[in-house]
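User: I'm putting together a teaching handout on how multi-component assemblies are represented. Below are the sequence lines for each component of a complex, exactly as they appear in our records. Could you produce the 3D structure of the whole assembly as structure tokens, so the students can see both representations side by side? Please keep the chain order the same as the input.
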Amino acid sequence: MSFLIPLSDLDYGAEEAAAVRRVLEGKWLSMGPETGAFEQEFAAAVGVPHACAVSNGTAALHLAFLALGIGPGDEVIQPAVNFVASANMTKAVGATPIFGEIVGLDEPTLDPAGIERLMTPHTKAVVVMHYGGYFCRMTEIREICRKHHLALVEDACHAVGAKCSLTSGSAAAGALGDIGCFSFFSNKNLVTGEGGMVTTRRDDLNDRIRNLRSHGMSTLTWDRHRGHAATYDVLAHGYNYRIDDLHSALGREQLKKLERNNRRRRELTALYWQNLASLESLGWTLPFRKLSTSEFPLSTFSSSACHLLPVVAPDADARWRCAEALKSAGIQTSLHYPFIPGFTAFACKESRGGLDKSIVFCQRIITLPLFPTMTEAQVQAVCEALIAAAHSRQPSASITPSAL
Ligand SMILES: *Cc1c(COP(=O)(O)O)cnc(C)c1O
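Assistant: Of course. Below is the structure of the complete assembly, with chains in the same order as your input.
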């Protein structure tokens, strides 16, 4: 079905069409000069020396774990509230995901306070995911990783363009750990269709990531094409995780629009929060809203990528009822995400318990439409429909604000 107001929409125009035409006319479609330029421009935007473009965000995570030497017997601490890619890629390298708890329903990112309890002598790395484009508590998490010599991987797929202030100055998502991973899938803030990026400050990790991206080969087709190399060696058992120049050309145009579009997302988010504030007295939670009203440990509202607009219903029943009501009104919603340890393939066996808040969040979360070309009138329409649905079949007397 097509929706009156979709969950997300592209900001594509003549610039993207011209970029694709430029590549077609140049007749070099696979990884080449557009990709090199995209990588340089992306690295500059994140503020790191290295960015390596790849076929998608999942490939980025896989290469991150491989480059860090994570393998069989190792454990990787990561949030249970996440897309499944990080957990799947942990399994792909033969390691075990250990799921950590979120801070709360209003801050559904990995709680630093629970990380040390999950550690064993097998723990090799921590993965953070900046849910919705809002930073995890990175000062504390970086300190824990430093203290215990753990690698830190940012799943920054929601957070392209997000910036936070540290005592050492401001830094972008993807520059705060050993490796940052990005996705440019069609619903993300920077869209190429399929596509991804790996960022790092470390030369050794960058060398390994680049090598594993293309079969472990010592030279690229593009270099041989230009006569820079005649043959190649295979240095490691690699993959084909290359992006191509059509996607990279799209990425370069989208990167130019990123700051403007993220600013627009922040404006629309502020409008949503203003309109939906009354739902809090009905037991609803507006995650991250406190960022706009009070002191926050690390990130500031002005720095978020505002990728998602999550709202947490008072109970699972209200979640389904309101999602259905919005659907009938032509408004698309989604759930970010189902609880990973609840999936058949994960089946709770890796869980060390203490995930009550994550479970509740996953049962009650709804994500509302948010995209840079959205109008204020569309935000109003979504808010009116949600408020009406939240008030229908009104058992408000029995709802006490959650202690979570
Ligand atoms: C989109 C996404 C991924 C996976 O990216 P793909 O490009 O679809 O492979 C991983 N983690 C998070 C948090 C995501 O949102």
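A couple of points students might notice: The CA atoms of residues 282 and 396 lie 6 Å apart. The two ends are 36 Å apart (CA to CA).
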